[in-house]
What does this fold into?
Amino acid sequence: MSEIQKNIVIIEDDPVLRELTQMAFVMEGFEVHMFEDGEKGIEYLEKNLASVDLILLDLFMPVLDGVHVLNWIRKTCQSSVSVVVMTAMVDEETERNMLSAGANNVIKKPLDMKVLLTTTQALLNN
Amino acid sequence: MSIVTVISLSMFFEVFNRFDRWIYDEATIAAQFFGSHPPRVLLIEVDTDYEGLSVNSWMSLIEQVHKYNPEVIAINILPWNWNRKDINLASQRFPLIIGSTHPELYAEFNNIVFSAIPPLDGNVYRQQRRFESVNEKKYQVLESAIHRKIYVEDNTDEGNFYINFMGGPGRLPVVSSKRVLEGGLVETLVKDKVILLGVKVPLMMDMPSPLGMMPFAHYQAYALDTLLNQNKIQIADIWLIIVLVSLVVFAMLLVVLKIPDRYQLLVISGFILSTLVISYICIVFFQYWIMTGYLLITEFSILIALLYLRNRQNQQALQSMALNSAARIESHWLSESFYSSDAHWNHIANMVTQTLSLERTIFLERVENDHRVREIKALNCGLEDISEMRRDYQRTPYTTAIEQGGALKLKHTYLEASADDEVQYLVPLNFAGNIQGFWAFTIKHDSTLDENKLIDAVEQFALQISELLYHRSEWEKNQQSQQSLVVKLMQMKFEESSYESINRSINFLTHRLSVMETLMDGLETSAILYDLFGRVVHVNKSMSHMLTGINLVPYSMSAVDLIVKLAGCSLIEARNYLSYLILEQGFINIPVKNAGMKSGHMLMVSALKNTEEPDVIEGEKQPFEITGVLCELIDMSQIREVYSQKEKVVEHMSGWLRNDLSSISMACDLSQDKRVSSDKRDQLLQVIKNKVMVLCKNFEKVNTIVQQDMTSRLTSQYPVDYIEALQDAVSESQKAHNKSVTINPVIPFCSPLVMAAPKELRQVFNAVIGILISDALDGSEIEVKIKCDVKFMEFKFTNQGFGIPQEQLQSYLHSHESLDSNEFQSLRLASHLIDNWGGQFEACSEIGEGMRFSFTLKSFQL
It folds into this structure.
């Protein structure tokens, strides 16, 4: 359990999965902010990026996809905040592209709660 | 009847006899090369000295001859200067026989006989008499008298005899009287011979004989020699000839009818040659003439009759075959019931009306031998609706339509009671160069209708209907010809000759063949037809174009060569393919592996089996059941695209599935956590339940989409991946316009599928980008922005170009007039397509700025 409450942002278009992920992280003592697409996520991050410890980012979203958000974080904001990309695309090329674009980790769907939490924890500890 | 006439006339003019005698003469001349009996006669010509030869000289001449002991001395004509005393003196001194033309004047002399002119046989002398009657008293002819004097016992034969001329003109020795008087005679010439002193009678012309023109004395010498050598020519008896001719006829017919046609001429020629050889042998060795001329005429007659009959039989068979074929071909096209009932025209009228969405339609046919038209069939109108009352196709508007040679859009009302938005057309129905009738129709004005396409379709229909009208007119003519004989005679109408009938059928067949060839050429599938032996029968245009594109010459390649070149297999493999096809009568599909061709083609090779009922006697088999080999190049790219699109749907489905499974998995994990309250757990279980239900529904939905026939025009929308279509359109348009315009569309990383039709979506992109490139400034950039919304994809295309007035652009897009510009016509169609797919199309243009097109397409949502 974290002694200082860590701030996590979840950008995911599927409302059910978003809620469930939030529930899992809240139960683990994280402060969670959720957004349904990249545009809204960036809107929040523009103001609060410095206070965010980790971003869980879905790749495939309407309006503005995860790639745009990741590029914005790394290129526009030059931020080193931890970003975990969640994707339903299972090809290795996508994974390589995301890592090279600045993602700290790529988790393939379907999500496993334990893997998600472990990965997140590891990134936060580092 | 004609045979009897020919025979009667031939008999009257002695044609047979003349021919036979001509052959006889020729045979006689030909026989001169063979040896004959030694001559028994010496002819002493008393010619140039005749007038000056005194009685004493005569006596001296006879004395010269007599001293060598001849058998008989004869003078053919009593010398004119001899008196009775001279005759008496000469007769006492020498064994003398004298010929005279008036023996009755010298009745007291036993040795004065008749010197007879021989009977004429046609125009030639061939015979000699034995006796001649003068004043009912019978006198012996000179030659006969000499013969009888030597052969006393021979007194039976009193008829004429045929002289044997064989041995030729020089066979008998001839000496002149001058030589004799000069003592030039030798004993071997005279001893035991009959000496004929031949007087040349003044004013007496030479006589035509088988050996040519001959003096009378020479002729007599030949006659005398014939009698003395007893080798006169025997002429076959008429009954024997009849028997011989009958035998020849019988033998020839017996042989000729039993042998194959090709040997008949040879056999008859053999008969003719045998007849000639036999008759030659008969006359040379047996002095027997078998009337060869009659036999030859008989044989030639049989030959001619046979040739005539065979030719006639062949002609009849050919005619019958051709007529049967003609009838069969015609019955293949259309049955009689087609013309005799109105039902088929109802069907045609309904079919064209529905297919072309016509409002009203009327078919008019040309009245035979008139320049009027009458109604065949009308739908939603009638003949009375036609505003012009003359119905005369030699006047407008018919003449204008004929001059135009196709569908004429009428500016004035032709069919009355026309609605405001009704457009009228008049189409001439022309077949085989003749106007068969007209087709008038109306359509409702529709801005979206491509008029050019409509006219094309109308003209295709018009061609077919013209042909039907032509057959109908032919059928009506045929019906009229079934009238009574009297009516036909009154109208001077006779049966159609077989030539006309066959010619008509051939014309129709040629037309059909041309239609079939055009059809094959028009096929999108590239096809090449080979006969059973692998030789090219027909290559359609598409195949020809395709093969030429990869440097292959279709007509110089066999089926095996084609398979080798296209499938990239070995010669043995290609032969194995073909032998399998021919033996199994099936088909094979071979992927095309030619470096010069685009991938995605399949070579389908199939055996063409003769499925028609064989027209042969039961038990007999057709030599070949396979009539040819058809090679088709099937473009699989469309099918590939369909499968590719379906694959994309499944890929997306996989994404959604993983998302939903994530929810289920997370919910499961959370529900097992002890920190979760029971209420929350229940909610989590409900989430799982809902997600499972959604998953099942989505599975069903995707399954339905995958099962959908994406090639069918009836289904207008599918989930389509637009990226490839857009990229292709960009590269194709850039190539087509040859302009240095940059287009770099920024495609979102995760683009959803859009709801559209794959082929038409390409057309939309092509139309939009095509216009923008046309309008763009050289070296400029066309900006393409693509935005994904939850429900829609938005595409924005902007160029830097010349632009056109906004009003003009809107008019192009929304007016009902047909456009000359293909580009804007395509843009208008693109706009309609997007509307149909549930999207929105917007177009802006400003002069000096350029154009902007934006449209939305529905995203695929489960």
Notes: Confidence is low (pLDDT under 50) at residues 616-623 of chain B.
